[in-house]
Amino acid sequence: MARSLLSDKPDPTSISAMSSSPASGSLDREKLADYVEAIAKSGDRAAFARLFAVFAPRVKAYLIRLGTESGAAEELAQEVMLTVWRKAGTFDRNQAAVSTWLFTIARNRRIDLIRRTRRPELDPDDPALLPEPEVPADTKMTVAERDVRLREALKALPAEQISLLEHAFYGDKSHSEIAEVTGLPLGTVKSRLRLAFARLRNLLDEPN
Amino acid sequence: MVAYHPPAEYLCDYAAGTACEAVSVLIATHLALCPQCRRQVSALDHLGGVMLEDLPPASLSHHAPELPTFKEPADILPPQLTANWPVEPSIPEPLRSYLAMAAKPPVWRWRLPGLSEMAVAVMGENRRSMAHLMRIPAGRAMPRHKHFGHELTLVLSGGFSDETGHYERGDIGYADFNTDHRPIADRGAPCICFVVMDAPLKLTGPLGRMINWAFGTSR
User: Fold this and answer.
1) What are the φ and ψ backbone dihedral angles of A87, each rounded to 5 degrees?
2) In sequence order, what are the residues at sequence separation of 6 or more whose Cβ sits closer than 8 angstroms to the Cβ of residue B214?
3) How many Cβ atoms sit within 10 Å of the Cβ of residue A19?
4) Which residues of chain B lie closer than 8 angstroms to A127, CB-CB?
5) Cα–Cα–Cα angle for B120, B82, B38, nearest 5°?
């Protein structure tokens, strides 16, 4: 698994270093969303090639971090990108960033392979689903605003909480497995994750 | 309106993709009934996306895949799996499909005075977790019991009260080693819940101790 998640050495790829990471600075999120829309609208192969260049290497890196062997990770990354080609029409730039959409596709595809069943998810068309309450449009945060807030919130989180989020998202560990590998009491893992979560939630919930 | 939500660590496991299948079914079914937690999970998905953006790219040994010459229309639905058994439509997805597509017909089995159970075929963490539906008749109390692991209880219909609060449809009750409780179903209708636990419960009341002894097990 990932190197030195808990070491004192600054890891340029840790979540805490994210907002200053050069990798993120080079991504133009609006453009990425334009590419997906161009694929949906006219099957634009050039747009797909650009998306592929940005995301296939990152999806592969993500899968390797989670313990997937390099060859299998590449194959899976190709599959994820093919899903992007096929399902571009389901992407809604007002709901999510392209990277969020890619993350959920990669995460789900990997789980599907491991379990040989589909990841349990809610069905948005389920008549039993309780719909979202109406929110006035002017108080709703845009995807870009949420992105800024999330990165600011991450910067403000204490290192001990960041480290747990890294174990979860980079390390493929459930909270009880995190307790096992870190030797932290389960109660400590739970309370730190709850604190981290409360901070992120407060920031993301409040309108400007 | 849902008043009791799952502890944050379970939402985190679900979003990161590390929750076992049984917990995932429970959380996803709660999400169907709880717009607030849906927003929380979408914030965590966003965190996953931020992480993906900032990972140093791995080098690829192959070029982009050959693209199919046509695109599937976005509205193509996943193949409809056939339901084997009719299931109460008020039970939200994805739990409803798990019940409808079970290999054996789901049946209620009497467990204890005031408690029937229906097994749900879904894999838990390390195969240790157990998942089932639980039914307490209207107005009845379950025997007092203690937990030797962690338990998530999602109310699907009716409601119940215990020392920690009053739970209705969509609410999630959480019990662990510290919980010693005696849930009582609301009057009017039976209380039906979806329960995922990682260790069996142990009865602690006077009647319960006798049953533990008689059955030679903790349940």
Assistant:
1) -105, 15
2) none
3) 16
4) 89
5) 60
Position A44 scores a pLDDT of: 93
Nearby residues of B165 by Cβ (< 8 Å), 6 or more positions away: B3, B4, B173
Torsion sign (Cα): A79, A81, A86, A87: positive
A83: nearest Cα among B132, B31, B74: B74
* Chain A (136-195) residues lying within 8 Å, Cβ to Cβ, of chain B: 146-147, 150-151, 154, 165, 168-170, 172-177, 189-190, 193-194
- According to the model, what pLDDT value does residue B215 have? 53
CB contact under 8 A, B92 and A15: no
Among candidate residues B91, B88, B134, the one with its CA nearest the CA of residue B114: B134
Q: What is the pLDDT of residue B45?
A: 94
Rounded to an integer, what distance in angstroms lies between the CA atom of residue B55 and that of residue B198? 34
Give percent of chain B above pLDDT 70. 79
Q: Indicate if the pLDDT at residue B16 is higher than 60.
A: yes
Contact B207, B215 (CB under 8 A): no
Token pair listed for A50: 């650009």
Q: What is the pLDDT of residues A142-179, one digit of tens each?
A: 888 888 888 888 888 999 999 999 999 988 899 999 99
Q: Check if A101 contacts B (Cβ < 8 Å).
A: yes
Residue A19, pLDDT score: 45
ipTM: 0.86
- How many Cβ contacts (< 8 angstroms) between chains A and B? 230
Q: Which of B182, B45, B202, B196 is nearest to B123 (CA)?
A: B196
- What CA–CA distance (Å, rounded) separates A98 from B30? 26
